[in-house]
């Protein structure tokens, strides 16, 4: 089969620009179908560079994000495995503990992506990972809810930099035909970390509960902390920072130059000054408002899954099953999110691959909103309401649309996640009070409405992208013909005269 995909149309115009100069294979390789659709257009040198980047960035990113979600989610596992009774938690104290973490996590989202514009990312992220590993380990010794709140705050504060910084770096190093699948692989480790946490807690509870006088949930924190610190240390040696200032030991000088050439070919801006003018520029664009709003609405609509274990406990399921059954969501999400990212890169489409999952998630949210009396329907809804099918593609979309302004891209990406967590810090307290468990008659109808609102936000984003593209094309037609010697506007981007900005669709 030698069909030409939409992605081929995007990359064909750039094929001659691949450096160093070499004859690209005329025939599509098998790798072009299962990995990057433009692999057959890349030189051997570029393919070698990508193999090195994948081995380093994806290894560090996936392991770190796996540990981040393992450490973030262990409270839910510990809570249903004896922590509630040992710390004498009652009322809404569990919700308060999750909210304290969320507040801390939200605070450092935007600062972290700006900090790594000046501080090498490998140094910053190493310090953050080792820090949250230490505080995770420390939770094994807590005896009061006050200590729980303090430790959860510190874990959230140190974890907050990892996700936005890695998304920024992935969007910096990779091209349009490469990004979505890699962000999907990175994001896949989040549900895997959640699932592994359930299996780990079940194993720890069955095998270590009572060993040396420690409860099983305390051993969970000891094991998680001991796993996190070595991963943080590995980040120091493997993460290549950014193409603009990488000194990675495994990249040759020629490969560093090639990385810069790839960035320039994609129209990605180099870091600039961080000042008030930069913030004014970012906040005067619709991109910050709509991308952030859309993600906040979508993220909050997934909140129902966090109460799956509480519903299982109310239904009388055993401790082991309370930890194991919710892992089904993670297993489904882990496989589907990667497939979705591959398909998005293969077709070159972002909008459709964001909109379709939002429409599909109306079903599980609707079941929970109207609270079916059928236990199997409810279990299906809890398992599928938080699959995160569109997350990787959504972040890829934002990375591409903001590519021409490095600081705007950094702020938009971090704002999406940061504001989502900021809202999550207080919204569950209002709509998911523990006193209304397990039906949560305010919470689930609210999340159903949030899905509908997020669909309208995504439609608005696409409208603005198309509008900007038409304006850029019309402006280009008014320019003298001598100004267009660099080539025609591609389907993916157009240069707006008078502005160093690319509009991407």
The Cα radius of gyration reads: 23 Å
Approximate shape: globular
Count of runs of 4 or more consecutive helical residues: 23
CATH superfamily: MFS general substrate transporter like domains
CATH-scheme architecture: Up-down Bundle
Q: State the total count of DSSP E strands.
A: 2
The string of secondary-structure elements, in order, is: HHHHHHHHHHHHHHHHHHHHHHHEE
Helix/strand/pairing class, anyone?
A: mainly alpha
**Beta fraction of the residues?**
under 5%
The low-confidence runs, each spanning 5 or more residues with pLDDT under 50, are 1-26, 482-505
CATH domain class:
Mainly Alpha
User: What percent of residues adopt helix (DSSP H or I)?
Assistant: 55-70%
Q: Give the distance, in angstroms, between the N- and C-terminal Cα atoms.
A: 28 Å
Q: Examine the coordinates and then state which fold CATH places here, giving the name of the CATH topology.
A: Growth Hormone, Chain: A
Total individual domains: 1
Strand order of the largest sheet: 1-2
Query: Main sheet, how many strands, which sense, barrel?
Result: 2 strands, antiparallel
Pfam families: MFS_1
GO molecular function, one term: transmembrane transporter activity
Family: Belongs to the major facilitator superfamily. Allantoate permease family.
Main location: membrane
């Amino acid at each position: 089969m030698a069909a030409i995909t939409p992605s081929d149309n995007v990359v064909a115009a750039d094929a001659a620009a691949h450096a160093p100069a070499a004859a690209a294979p005329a025939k599509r390789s098998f790798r072009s179908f299962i990995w990057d659709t433009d692999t057959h257009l890349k030189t051997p040198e570029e393919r070698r560079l990508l193999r090195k980047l994948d081995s380093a960035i994806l290894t560090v990113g996936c392991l770190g994000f796996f540990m981040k979600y393992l450490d973030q989610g262990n409270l839910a596992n510990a809570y249903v495995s004896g922590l509630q009774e040992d710390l004498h938690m009652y009322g809404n104290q569990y919700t308060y503990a999750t909210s304290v973490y969320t507040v801390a996590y939200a605070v450092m989202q935007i600062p972290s992506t700006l900090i790594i514009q000046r501080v090498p990312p490998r140094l910053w992220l190493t310090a953050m990972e080792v820090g949250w590993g230490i505080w995770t380990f420390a939770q094994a010794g807590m005896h009061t809810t006050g200590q729980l709140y303090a430790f959860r705050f510190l874990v959230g504060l140190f974890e907050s930099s990892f996700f936005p910084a890695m998304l920024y770096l992935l969007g910096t190093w990779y091209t349009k035909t490469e990004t979505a699948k890699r962000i999907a692989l990175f994001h896949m480790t989040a549900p895997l970390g959640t699932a592994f946490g359930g299996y780990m807690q079940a194993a720890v509870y069955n095998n270590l509960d009572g060993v040396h006088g420690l409860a099983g949930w305390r051993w969970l924190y000891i094991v998680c902390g001991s796993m996190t610190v070595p991963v943080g240390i590995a980040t120091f040696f493997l993460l290549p920072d950014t193409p603009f200032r990488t000194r990675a030991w495994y990249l040759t000088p020629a490969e560093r130059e090639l990385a810069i050439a790839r960035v320039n070919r994609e129209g990605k801006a180099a870091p600039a000054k961080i000042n008030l003018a930069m913030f004014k520029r970012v906040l005067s664009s619709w991109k910050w408002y709509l991308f952030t709003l859309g993600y906040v609405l979508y993220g909050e609509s997934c909140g129902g899954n966090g109460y799956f274990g509480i519903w299982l406990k109310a239904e009388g399921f055993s401790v082991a099953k309370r930890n194991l059954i919710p892992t089904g969501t993670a297993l489904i999400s882990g496989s589907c999110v990667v497939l979705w990212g591959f398909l998005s890169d293969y077709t070159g489409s972002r909008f459709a691959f964001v909109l379709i999952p939002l429409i599909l998630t109306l079903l599980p949210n609707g079941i929970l909103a109207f609270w079916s009396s059928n236990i199997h329907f409810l279990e299906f809804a809890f398992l599928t309401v938080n699959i995160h099918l569109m997350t990787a593609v959504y972040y890829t979309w934002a990375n591409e649309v903001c590519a021409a302004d490095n600081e705007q891209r950094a702020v938009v990406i971090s704002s999406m996640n940061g504001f989502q967590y900021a809202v999550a810090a207080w919204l569950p307290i209002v709509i998911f009070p523990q006193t209304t468990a397990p039906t949560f008659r305010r919470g689930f109808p609210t999340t159903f409405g949030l899905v509908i609102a997020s669909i309208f936000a995504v439609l608005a984003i696409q409208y603005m992208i198309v509008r900007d593209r038409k304006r850029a094309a019309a402006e280009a037609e008014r320019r003298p013909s001598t100004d267009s010697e660099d080539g025609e506007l591609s389907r993916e981007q157009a240069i707006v005269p008078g502005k160093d900005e690319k509009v991407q669709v």
